[in-house]
Amino acid sequence: MATNELTDPVDPADPADPADPVKPPSTTSTAATSPPAAEPEAPRQRGLLLLLLVANSAMMAVYMGVGSVLLPTQIAAIAPDDKVAVLGLIGGISAIFATAFNPVAGALSDRSGRRNPWILGGALGALLALGLLGSVSTALLVGIGWCLVQATMNTYQAAVTAIVPDRIPAARRGTASALVGLGLPIGGTVGVLVASQTSTHLRTGYLVFGTIVAGAALLLSVFCRDTPRAGAVAAPRPPKGAQLAAFLSALANHDFRWAFIGRALMVLGYFSVVGYQLYILDDHIALPAGLAPPAAMAILTPVSMAAVALSTVVGGLLSDRWNRRKVFVGVSAALAGLVMVVPVVSPTWTGMLVFSALNGLAFGCFMAVDTALVTLVLPRAEDAARDMGVLNIANAGPQIIAPFVASAIVTALGGYTPLFLAGGALSLIGALAILPIRSVR
Q1: Domains of the chain: which residue ranges?
Q2: What is the value of pTM for the model shown?
Q3: Over the stretch 356-374, which tens digit does the pLDDT of each residue have?
């Protein structure tokens, strides 16, 4: 971290200078050097972090429970002979919706100066979309339903993600990101456990997840009221060409660009494998007698998520204490790449348990500290949600590619071993992409 200022997430190595060619002239204003919001009082901040933890847990419950269990189960029932290809096609197309809606919703919430309407609207839309998904029985309609879920959930996610750079002091970003990041192990575990129990009653399962995210959004909206950001609505609307240039201007920033690349490679490697975990357990791993793949997921996920929780908290706290981000991000990405070898060497239940624990340690630390790192290289404080939405392209974008690539590898190369090796290589390259970042240690 390159600054000790507590209220301004803009890196001093990259000031918001009207003469800076990285910054589009149409979005330059005197507000660029002002903090996005006053530093929150301690009691308010503690309540905010708890609400954000609930909101992120609900989001991860949907992504993990539906994406890892209910959706593959539904597709396997509809197209048992082509499940790998169909899941890849639906996953890839739906990720396009995620990639588009996340930054667009973030930019709109920036312009409106409010987060709660987007959080609540996205969650209620997700409830309706999940209800639709649970009522259909063809691959086409499943694909449409999952695209709608991705669109609405990414609207919700964009606004929730922006609250940390909006309201949390820069010196506490690692700790805050770690605490909020516990949404992955908590939500992921709850999501997979709920999904494994409702995998034979898909409509009920989908409605339960819709209710979870809607309830979390309602809590956050009621107990964490919006404080409109000064000048957000009054800002003049630039021409459309300038709007597009402004939208992607963050990628012209050296450090933000490399953070984007590292995140994209890590996510691509991770989801190339995790997206097919139910099928891996069914077709690649020798499970103990009587243990079905959904039940195996219900065991593996708590193991992985416990490891994620541990490394999220430890990594976030230590990165703050030592004022270091890059070493935690780089080492955890490298570990994520190396552990992909475990199921290759040992395609057994024990091997999967070891893999899940080590992969959880790596992924939890990476996501917690990388999120803190990214908030410290945001080019402009008042465009936090927009730029975090651009970063979230690095989360959603690789998921467009991952299902197509993964299904092609499994089909063309004859199994899941090449898939593990490809996923590991991508994560290792992602670790190297962290090195060029200059303004954050």
Answers
A1: 42-227+246-432
A2: 0.69
A3: 999 999 988 888 788 778 7
